[in-house]
Amino acid sequence: MVLIAEIEKAEKTHVNGCLKDGQRQLLSSKLGLWSRIPSGIKDDWEKKILCFLDLFSFVETSDNFPSDDIKLLVAAEAALLVAKRSFEDYRFLRSIYIWEKQIPRQPGAHGMASMREVHLSWKYLEKTIGNADDGKNLVLHEFAHVIDFSDDGKAQSIPVPKTSKDFKFWENLIAEMHKRIVNAHSAGTKFPVRSYAGLQCDKGLTPEIFSCGTSAFFENGQSLQKECPDFYNALSNFYGMNPAAWSKVI
Ligand SMILES: [Zn+2]
């Protein structure tokens, strides 16, 4: 849990902050998304990365692990989601666990998130963090769950509380997207949001649409905009960014 006063203090500390050259070099060499982010976002993003590292704790999961470089890579992607938003999205987040290999007792899971914790497998992340084109970004996915939880304690792909004027809009949008995702993938049609987004829990909740959609939004913005303009626009308004206009460096 992060207090509003702590967020304000970190933001004040880094109000004119920017990353060091070595940090930028690391992000530019390892992070697939780095080169794509426009300068108007990068300035805010760098400040948010520095604040993120001040505000949230990374648990030492084995001796001297994760390293500062690994923490920076994860902090950078997590901070991108809130580059144009508030850290209040992460106010319930307590700890980030990056496991060198597998997440304990979770065979096959590369990442997990609740309102308070994020768990990530570095073995998987190391192989995938440089790829920003498959729409399956693990860090963005898990931290989008944290955001989805934070408004009302539920990850149901509606990132605003029931009291919000936008709740009904999101509820309808997600129901429609669920149909489209399930239909497209069962028909074998290419679709910008991956099939896992169609997962439905016992209570009928669909927790994966917002997270899978967030990864698709940042990594495959153009095709998401083309295929699902309403969903794309909702995410664009929510995150305050327009990735479809970012040029990809091939
Ligand atoms: Zn998920």
Summarize the structure.
A four-stranded mixed beta sheet has the order 1-2-4-3. The protein is 48% helix and 6% strand.
Characterise the protein shown here.
The chain has 250 residues and is an alpha/beta fold. The protein has 2 domains: 4-150, no CATH class; 167-245, no CATH class. It contains 10 helices and 4 strands. The protein has a 4-stranded mixed β-sheet with strand order 1-2-4-3. The longest helix has 20 residues, at 167-186. The protein is globular. It starts with a helix and ends in an 11-residue tail after the last helix. The mean pLDDT is 95. Zinc ion is lined by residues 141, 145, 208, 211.
Give the secondary structure arrangement, pairings included.
Layout lengths: L3 H10 L7 H10 L8 H17 L1 E3 L8 H14 L13 E5 L11 E3 L3 E5 H7 L9 H13 L16 H20 L21 H12 L1 H7 L1 H11 L11
Parallel strand pairs: 1-2, 2-4
Antiparallel strand pairs: 3-4
Helix pairs in contact: 1-3, 2-4, 3-4, 4-6, 6-8, 8-9, 9-10
The protein binds zinc ion.
Bound molecules: zinc ion
SSE string, helices as H and strands as E: HHHEHEEEHHHHHH
Low-confidence stretches: none
Gross geometry: globular
Q: How would you characterize the largest beta sheet?
A: 4 strands, mixed
The side-by-side strand order for the widest beta sheet comes to 1-2-4-3
The overall pLDDT average reads 95
Cα separation of the termini: 40 Å
**Beta fraction:** 5-15%
Query: Structural class, from helix and strand content?
Result: alpha/beta
Number of domains: 2
Number of helices: 10
Residues in helices, as a percent range: 40-55%
Q: Give the radius of gyration.
A: 17 Å
Number of strands: 4
